[in-house]
Amino acid sequence: MTTTIEERSSARSARDGWAARVLVPEMWATVSIVAMWLAVLFVGVFGSDMTFHGVDGSVTVMPSVAAVALFAAIGTGSVAKRVFGRRPT
Description:
Helices cover 53% and strands 11% of the residues. By secondary structure, the protein is mostly helical. It has one domain (18-84). A two-stranded antiparallel sheet has the order 1-2.
């Protein structure tokens, strides 16, 4: 029986170093999810209210962050399922 030892090439790959860490899809998915929730935070702090006027004269006031948070939750779920929910092959 013989055993072979696999040696690593002395020439470095183009994706070694910082590029290998930056070019992974998981990092960009994390950045996009953080950006979505930072938008929710800023709309919650600085955003105004949504005002709805009914035909009977009623007025409904709702914070605009509720709509932004709803869409951020949908976006977070879709990004997380697409990037982090992959099955290993």
